[in-house]
Amino acid sequence: MITIDEKLCKGCNICIELCPRQVYEESKTIDSKGVLIPIPKYLEECRKCELCTLLCPDQAISVDEEDES
Amino acid sequence: MDKTHESRFMKYLRKDRLPHIFCAGCGNGIVINTFFNGMELAEIDLSDIVMVSGIGCSSRIPGYVKCDSLHTTHGRPISFATGIKIAKSDLNVVVFTGDGDAAAIGGNHLIHGARRNIDLTVICINNSIYGMTGGQISPTSPKGSYGSTAPYGAMEKPFDLSELVSAAGATYVARWTTAHPLQLSMSIKDALNNKGFSFIEVISQCPTYFGRKNQMRSSIEMMKWMKSVSIVKKKADKMDEKKLEGKIIVGEFVNKEEPELSDEIYKLIKEEWDEKPSSELKSAYMED
């Protein structure tokens, strides 16, 4: 499961572009801070390499170890 | 099972200070992550680490980390770190510095730190521009790049920091970009374990100034550019200079063992004043 902290995300979109399996998708709606927060849409593609947690400059992404229920 | 749904590096950060002031897509955040990753790989506790920084965007990093830290004057973090290391040699002293801090105003401190081979880990975040003050050209800006003080392109040749520090006598030197987070983590691990002056140059993106002035407006564009122009050291050694123009040479430059300064000082104290020098020589003003 992937969680994005909306308080921390600044919408740089590094996760969307650099995820090797294109798990993330750009959001269409702007939130209250004016940020387009990415959506982890294709979770079944995720192999939990955690490259996104390493590359997120704002420490907003967490990839949890447990399998989806 | 982790139910907090926080980034795995959040336990090392001062949560009340977040979100940090870095621009969206700034490379400094990636360096924070890779440092913690390297620290975990090196199996070093955060309580054994002291972070020292100078002035600049990159030097704000220690303020967000839950460890003892020192925010010092412009260009002088290595001098302050030398003092900490000699006073308490069991601590791991890490210096976060930028290219304007380490190469411009603190250039002398950098080369003399390397010459002394004192056990510090210096992480220099090189974004090739003065980001905090408005995009002026720095000593590491590539020739021909634009900045607010170089509207016709920079005319000067940039510093090659890794080669400079290698020549000055550091025992571990590596260069990576923020587009190589795993390799950078491994280098940080090796640098923390290395007994001696360790220098890691991280080529980072500044989308706000460097990117905007050089037709790379987003951090993604900059990271893709950095990845496309970087060449591993082993491959670059076989190429001639003309082909390497405009390329970033990444990899490990130096990894060797040499006598370390604080060790030598403690050894001398032990030889001259016998046992337990640290408790007896606590104060410089001690009467004898």
Description:
With 69 residues, chain A is an alpha+beta fold. Chain A contains two helices and four strands. In chain A, the strands form two sheets. Chain A has a two-stranded antiparallel sheet with strand order 1-4. The longest helix of chain A has 5 residues. Chain B is built from eleven helices and ten strands. Chain B is globular, with a radius of gyration of 20 Å. Classes of the chains: A alpha+beta (69), B alpha/beta (288). Chains A and B meet through helix 1 and helix 2 of A and helix 1, helix 6 and helix 8 of B.
Spell the H/E element sequence of chain B. HEEHEHHEEEHEHEHHEHEHH
Gross CATH architecture of chain B: 3-Layer(aba) Sandwich
Q: Helical stretch count of chain B?
A: 11
Helix-and-strand structural type of chain A: alpha+beta
- Structural domains of chain A: how many: 1
- Let me know the CATH homologous superfamily of chain B: Thiamin diphosphate (ThDP)-binding fold, Pyr/PP domains
Give the overall form of chain A.
Answer: globular
> What is the makeup of the main sheet of chain A?
2 strands, antiparallel
* Helix proportion of chain B: 25-40%
Report the sheet-strand fraction of chain A: 5-15%
Radius of gyration from the alpha-carbon trace of chain B, in angstroms = 20 Å
Helical fraction of chain A equals 10-25%
Query: What's the β-strand tally of chain B?
Result: 10
Mean pLDDT of chain A equals 89
Mean pLDDT of chain B: 90
Within the CATH hierarchy, at the fold level, what is the topology of chain B?
Answer: Rossmann fold
